[in-house]
Specification:
The chain is mainly beta. About 10% of the residues lie in helices and about 60% in strands. The model is unreliable at about 1-25 (pLDDT under 50).
């Protein structure tokens, strides 16, 4: 029974890895509706969106010739401490650089890197400050090692290798003692060998 549970957990993890590789296209155009715009000169503007009830900022950043530029910050609503929800860098209206996301108590939830509107580089998610997943992207596609960790621990749960958006290399699933219980090899998205491992 335990072996069957391990198999299904491993299979579910593989399917989740494939689903996580689908990325939406970034938007370029900025709609100024609902924002207070302040002219700064030379095509540069400051944009601030405020909560109508409290007057506190919900989002703020700069526009250059009508497109997001530099660092933009969003805030959790109805929060007297103005805890950031996200901090993201833009170039010419597209995410380029780092994205950091926080929970409503200020706990770190995500760090990602973008280039020209696409995920590019390290992407990590956190659960109350503990590492949950680490992925690597290249021009919007998974490329490199994908690592997943057991909830509320720092122990590795599974690893998978990707190349150009396809699973390519070894997939391994670990029990909570750190033993490999499943191991598969993939080439260009197809499983070529592997199975359950004996202790």
């Amino acid at each position: 029974m335990k072996a069957n549970k391990t198999f299904f957990v491993g299979l579910f993890s593989c399917l989740m890895l494939i689903a996580c590789n689908q990325q939406p296209k970034a938007k370029e155009n900025f709609s100024a509706e609902g924002y207070e715009i302040t002219e700064l000169g030379n095509g540069l503007q400051e944009a601030v969106k405020k909560d109508p009830a409290s007057g506190q900022p919900l989002e703020e950043g700069l526009l250059l010739h009508g497109k997001k530029e530099g660092t933009w910050v969003t805030y959790h609503p109805n929060n007297d401490k103005l805890i950031p929800k996200s901090i993201q860098s833009y170039i010419n209206g597209q995410p380029s650089g780092i994205l950091i996301e926080y929970g409503n108590r200020g706990q770190l939830e995500k760090i990602a890197h973008y280039l020209n509107g696409q995920l590019h580089g390290r992407y990590a998610t956190y659960d109350y400050g503990r590492l949950k997943e680490v992925r690597h992207y290249k021009h919007g596609q998974l490329d490199g090692l994908f690592s997943k960790y057991y909830p509320k621990t720092d122990k590795l749960q599974s690893t998978a290798e990707f190349k150009d958006g396809k699973q390519h290399g070894m997939y391994r699933y670990y029990d909570e003692e750190g033993n490999v219980t499943l191991e598969y090899e993939y080439q260009n998205g197809k499983k070529v060998r592997g199975g359950m491992k004996k202790k």
